[in-house]
Amino acid sequence: DWISLPYFNWFYAEIIRALFSSMESHMYQLRHYKVTGADQIAALANSRICDGVLAFEPNNPEDIEALRSLAVPFICCHHTEKINGVSVCATNNYRGGLIAGQYLHHTGHRKPAYVTGRLESVFSHRERLQGFRDAFADNEVAVFETEVGIEGGYESGLALFQSIREGKTDSIGVVNDLTAIGVIHALMKKGVRIPEDVSIIGYDNLPFTVSLPFRLATVEISLSRIYTRAVELLIQSIRTPEIRREIVDPILVPGESVSRM
User: Fold this and answer.
1) Is residue 238 within 8 Å of 27, Cβ to Cβ?
2) d(CA 159, CA 246)
3) Which side of the chain, N or C, has fewer Cβ within a 10 Å radius?
4) Is 55 helix (H, G, I), strand (E, B) or coil?
5) Is the pLDDT of residue 32 over 90?
6) pLDDT tens figures, 202-255
7) b/e per residue, 73-85, with b = 16+ CB within 10 A?
8) What span, in angstroms and rounded, lies between the C-alpha atoms of 66 and 60?
9) Which of 17-21, 56-60, 67-71, 114-118 has the highest mean pLDDT?
10) What are phi and psi of 15, to 5 degrees?
11) 123-151 burial code (b ≥16 CB/10 A, e <16)
12) What angle do CA 63, 239, 233 make, to 5 degrees?
């Protein structure tokens, strides 16, 4: 139901490339199955289709139990850092939000805003917001919740304009780059200079942000590292069954959209 899903086709392609590349040095072959819930996962239990499973973001206890029913090792990948009792290879969303906030704080910003969305339903968004807030422990963060994506970002940019013009906001953290693009378009249309009037940092390091008139500061999820390591953990689990857990920290990508105060 993500309106902006077509923008993320590159995202899944990068994951598949990382998986195939990692499998080249092993005797195993990679098969790709699309399942949409616990029932479809459980239906594979008696098919003996594989020796192990890399599960992309199973997001509820029912999915986890269905994976257990497969009776083969499995690794829960991506936004799974809060899942306990099973093997996990995940990104650290809290750390990513903290990195973004610290970058702004270390460059002298003390009047931050944060644009996000779907806080009730997407825990990774909540984690990023909490990390960002903790980077500004002594400063209040104004939170703007909207629909995630370009249109929602554009609306938030318009809502932030007055606060920026009055000097009440000197920096903006955004839950992802796609939403940041909308914020940037709105502010530029209003004549706001980035980063002279306000600094902006996104999240994801989307490839098409190179079309912006400046290099967007952002946070790199490190998809290739996550899924390369996930393959290694899965093969270890096939050989020696036990719970394995690895959390991969995101990386700051500095950019021209953040100024030093």
Assistant:
1) no
2) 39
3) N
4) strand
5) no
6) 999 988 888 899 999 999 998 999 999 999 999 999 999 999 999 999 999 999
7) bbbbbbbbbebee
8) 10
9) 114-118
10) -65, -50
11) bbbbbbbebbbebbeeeebeebbbbbbbe
12) 55
What CA–CA distance (Å, rounded) separates 137 from 22?
40
What is the per-residue pLDDT for 5?
A: 64
Mean pLDDT for the stretch of residues 73-97: 96
- Tens-digit pLDDT profile for residues 153-211: 999 999 999 999 999 999 999 999 999 999 999 999 999 999 999 999 999 998 888 88
CA distance 236 to 74: 11
- Specify burial of residue 167 (Cβ count, 10 A radius: 0-12, 13-18, 19+): exposed
Residue for token digits 């460059």? 107
pLDDT for position 2: 58
Is residue 246 a contact partner of residue 226, using CB atoms and an 8 Å limit? no
Q: Which residues contact 171 (CB under 8 A, 6 or more apart)?
A: 104, 109, 111, 112, 113, 198, 199, 200, 201, 258
pTM above 0.90, yes or no: yes
